[in-house]
């Protein structure tokens, strides 16, 4: 006997009829996979990942911020951003320095090598964005981005790493 009880091990009778392509969460997950793959193809020669790009660009936009501020600005959790910064620092793209106002805080900034890498990766990132949106007719691209950002902003509080006031 099939029941709809949450404790039942049997699936609900309608579960087999769910069309995954009709679920926004499934489509968003697939688009994220596609977006990462396209970015990595375009930026392959730089060895920069989408998250590393976001960190580099955020530091170019707001130099000398602490790690927590950086993580909020790109919507990434603070524990994971530490390893991203470690890898960028190991490559000589980011430097940490003590905050003169609070010596417990380390401020992050791009190195000259980081600025050069960012200049090199931006054209690849732009090609990736164009490829992601290419299936949409040009007039629909701005509307898609408007709707997507409405969803992101409206659901930001549910994220494991909500973007801050300056983030998306």
Written overview of the protein:
This protein has 168 residues and is mainly alpha-helical. It has helices at residues 24-42, 50-61, 67-74, 78-90, 112-133, 138-155, and strands spanning 65-66, 94-99, 102-110. The chain is 55% helix and 10% strand. It is globular and about 60 Å long. The termini are far apart. The model is unreliable at 1-5 (pLDDT under 50).
Largest sheet: 3 strands, antiparallel
Class inferred from helices and paired strands:
mainly alpha
Overall form: globular
Q: Count the DSSP helices.
A: 6
First-residue to last-residue Cα separation: 48 Å
Task: Describe the secondary-structure layout.
Blueprint: H1 24-42, H2 50-61, E1 65-66, H3 67-74, H4 78-90, E2 94-99, E3 102-110, H5 112-133, H6 138-155
Antiparallel strand pairs: 1-3, 2-3
Helix pairs in contact: 1-5, 2-3, 2-5, 3-4
What features would you highlight for this structure?
55% helix, 6 helices, 168 residues, mainly alpha, 3 strands
Concise overview:
The chain has 168 residues and is mainly alpha-helical. It is built from 6 helices and 3 strands.
């Amino acid at each position: 006997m099939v029941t709809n009880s949450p404790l039942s091990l049997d699936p609900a009778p309608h579960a087999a009829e769910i069309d995954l392509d009709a679920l926004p969460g499934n489509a968003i997950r697939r688009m994220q996979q596609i977006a990462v793959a396209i970015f990595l193809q375009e930026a392959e020669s730089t060895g920069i990942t989408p998250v590393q790009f976001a960190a580099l660009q955020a530091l170019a936009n707001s130099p000398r911020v602490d790690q927590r501020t950086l993580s909020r600005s790109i919507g990434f959790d603070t524990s994971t951003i530490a390893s991203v910064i470690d890898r960028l620092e190991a490559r000589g793209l980011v430097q940490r320095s003590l905050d003169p106002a609070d010596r417990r805080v380390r401020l992050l900034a791009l190195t000259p090598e980081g600025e050069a890498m960012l200049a090199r990766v931006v054209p690849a990132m732009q090609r990736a964005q164009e490829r992601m949106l290419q299936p949409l007719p040009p007039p629909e691209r701005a509307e898609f981005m408007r709707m997507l950002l409405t969803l992101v902003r409206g659901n930001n509080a549910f994220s494991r790493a909500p973007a801050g006031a300056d983030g998306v």
